[in-house]
Amino acid sequence: MAETISGSVSVSCRFSHSNTYQGTPYSGSASKNYSTSLPSTALGHLYFATLNVTTTPMTIDLTTQVDAFGTATAFTSVKNLFIANKDATNNLTVGGGTNALFPAMPVLGPNSCLSLTTTITVDATHKVISLVASAGTISVDILAAGG
């Protein structure tokens, strides 16, 4: 049986603000939405996990992972990457290191996430996602979808 993967990415940001200037109240709101579909022709691999990350770098080699069905998977590209730091107090460093898929990203603070929807080529020298906690052991969700 052939595996078929397709999906969508949706991001919504909504904020409201209010202030009083010289006795007159002002209020407003701002919102931005982004969504895209990733058809099965763009996707062939899916990796997701909840990981316990420590201060010792954890490396995820996208050319040697196993999918949810136990099948070996070797990404050639990443179309969407989602990483969530679920810890309430400690930071998470994502990226960098040897054979890095991308350089180190800005630090993810407590209860924060990174969502990239773009095409990143995976090859012999650009294949590893590194995760490092600032302290202790933190819970991290990761999802990578690509070709």
List keywords for this structure.
four-stranded antiparallel β-sheet; 147 residues; Jelly Rolls; single chain; three-stranded antiparallel β-sheet
Describe this structure in words.
- With 147 residues, the chain is mostly beta strands.
- It has one domain: Jelly Rolls.
- The protein contains no helices and eleven strands.
- The protein has strands spanning 7-21, 24-38, 45-53, 58-61, 65-66, 72-73, 77-85, 92-94, 112-121, 128-133, 138-146.
- The chain has a four-stranded antiparallel beta sheet, with no helix packed on it.
- It is globular, with a radius of gyration of 18 Å.
Radius of gyration: 18 Å
Estimate the strand proportion: over 45%
- The CATH topology is given as Jelly Rolls
Mean pLDDT: 93
Question: What is the percent of helical residues?
Answer: under 10%
Count, helices: 0
CATH class term: Mainly Beta
Number of separate structural domains: 1
What would you call the quaternary organization? single chain
Brief characterization of the structure:
The chain is built from no helices and eleven strands. The protein is an all-beta fold.
Write the layout of secondary structure elements.
Elements lengths: L6 E15 L2 E15 L6 E9 L4 E4 L3 E2 L5 E2 L3 E9 L6 E3 L17 E10 L6 E6 L4 E9 L1
Antiparallel strand pairs: 1-2, 3-11, 4-10, 5-6, 7-9, 7-11, 8-10
